[in-house]
Amino acid sequence: MRIALFISGGGTTMEAIIKACHKGEINNVIPALIIASSEDAGGIKKALNLGIPKEDIVVMSPKSFKNRNEFGEALIKECKTRQVDFIGQYGWLVKTPDNVCKEYEGMIINQHPGPLDNGRPDFGGKGMYGMRVHKARLEFVRRVDHDFWTEATAHRVTPVFDEGKIIKTKQVPIFKNDTAESLQARVLPIEHEVQIEVLKDFANNKVVEFTRDEPLILYGEEDILEECKRLAIEKYPNG
């Protein structure tokens, strides 16, 4: 399985995946392409240091294209040139164009740092990424006084932010003295584990979608959730 790794920042998950491939921890998976949405993405240097050829590390910002469809066509072209079978979004902050979602339907996934709940209120959606997710989850569980945990999540990518089917999750406890920063530090290595396990599942045709039996957000807690999201965005304007 030849994979493209889409990044926007430091590329720590990308780094963990490439190292796992090099060590043979993930069989039958080849990192064929890195696409960064900014030339300032720290993950570019990491990819070079890990031996990814310079010609297979592409910087592509949507701002450089006339519209989202043209941006998507360029992404698809880079993937097809390298015979990419699978796309992983690892800290990719750009909204993936609809034509890319269609071209790689079922074979494009996203890394999310908090709990999601398909079709019901959750800690995803527009503007919910990075530290914002950790802050919102932390504030929420303290206000409702239950479910003192968060989750590292992998889910399918669709044209709507964070609404694709959940594939895999792992819970991480929330402690009394946690801050958004300490929670992020504890969740990040678990995110790496989740994404590596998902690649193994895809490579071995063992992907199983996950559905919650009980809603993540209970009846009457919806307004609390939205307030926590709003506060998180204010606290972390840059994510």
Class based on secondary structure composition and strand pairing? alpha/beta
Number of strands: 7
Tell me the strand order in the biggest sheet: 3-2-1-4-5-6-7
Q: Tell me what portion of residues adopts beta-strand conformation.
A: 15-25%
Q: Helix count?
A: 7
Based on CA atoms alone, the radius of gyration comes out at 17 Å
* Major sheet details: 7 strands, mixed
- Overall shape: globular
Mean pLDDT across the residues is 97
Low-confidence spans: none
Helix content percent band:
25-40%
Provide structural commentary:
- There is one protein chain.
- The protein is built from seven helices and seven strands.
- With 239 residues, it is α/β, with parallel strands linked by helices.
- The chain has a seven-stranded mixed β-sheet, with helices on both faces.
- The radius of gyration is 17 Å and the shape is globular.
- The model has no long low-confidence stretch (mean pLDDT 97).
Task: Please summarize what this structure is.
This protein has 239 residues and is α/β, with parallel strands linked by helices.
Features:
7 strands, seven-stranded mixed β-sheet, 239 residues, alpha/beta, globular, 38% helix
Helices, strands, pairings?
Layout: E1 2-7, H1 12-22, E2 30-36, H2 43-49, E3 57-59, H3 68-81, E4 86-89, H4 98-103, E5 108-112, H5 131-144, E6 149-156, E7 166-173, H6 180-203, H7 222-235
Parallel strand pairs: 1-2, 1-4, 2-3, 4-5
Antiparallel strand pairs: 5-6, 6-7
Helix pairs in contact: 1-6, 5-6, 5-7
